[in-house]
Amino acid sequence: MMRFWTAMLAVAGLTVWAGADRPVIYAAGHSLKDQRIALTAWGSGTVAESDETAFEGTKSIRISSRNFFQGGILSFGSPINLSEAFSDTNNLVRLTFRFADSNMTIPGGPNPQGNPGRGGGRGGDGYAPVIPGVSIGFGFMQRGGGGEGGGGGQGQPQPGAQPVAVRPPVPPALLDTIRVIVTTTDNLKSELYLPVANSYLAERGWRTTSFPLQAVSGFARTNKVVRQIAVSLESTATMFVGDIRVVQDSTPISVDVNATTLNLALNDKVTLRARGFAGSTLLKYEWNFDQGDAKQVDAVGPVVARVFRKPGTYYITLTVRDKYGLKQPVSKVITAVVNP
């Protein structure tokens, strides 16, 4: 029943709500047309509605990018008012996404070769190619090759050409950030950089990452009525967006560690693992190894390794924090006895 009313609101051109104060920005399972969302390429990036993979239903949004200054733009025919959602620090925007992988074959562009000109005359028409590793199903017009002494012809798509199946670029290991730029109806822009490494695995290759509206740099000074969202990646990759919505999450931070006490010999190396949970909230892990400064951060991350080179008793403190500082942090203390 909820899905039915969500669809009806989208068709009517109204803001789609997941609850009393939690709007859906892009609903998995509903077409862009029904939601009055238009897609526009940003720079030499590409964006399109796709049926190659879906988080729910049969559609998703495919965005290809090479850097933070090109990608795809979602424009909302019915701007989304996030004023009420912004006022509650427990409201997060949750993005569900996945990267294209080597098992996917998705449509490319036509044959990129231009027809050569003859006898020094005008070169034949070139065809719209796929930009290697970047533009999936989209190409810039290239000039065809001219004959000797002749100029190249103006690039045009080949009539009746069939798309070439190409393998999408696999995101490099160093790809760890998604850039999001929000434009409101008062023409002000705000932005956020989302860490991929802190996202959560959902299912079938899909991941989720969430951020508080109050963490979007510059959003507080806008009228908070969103008319566009632009998405880009830090390097060459293709990303599918399956769902974007506001969720409410007041889950407190909790954490488990793989040890509470350690009994070690001198120069032993120990690996400490922590697993934090706070609902959709992104977390950061900070470790202090009791070296005289209780506030010093000696290591970061959920998994750290340490070698103890001096005998004694150490009190190792792990502090798990909300990445955006809105939830109360939690600390755990591990006692390590290093024998001479």
Automatic annotation (TrEMBL):
PROSITE patterns xref list: PKD (PS50093)
InterPro entries for this protein: Ig-like_fold (IPR013783), PKD_dom (IPR000601), PKD_dom_sf (IPR035986)
Key words of the record: Signal
Coiled coil: none
Domain PKD, residue spans: 278-325
Biased composition (Gly residues): 116-125, 142-155
Signal peptide positions on this chain: 1-20
Keyword presence, Cytoplasm: no
Region Disordered: start-end pairs: 104-125, 142-164
The keyword Ribonucleoprotein is annotated on this UniProt entry: no
Protein known as: PKD domain-containing protein
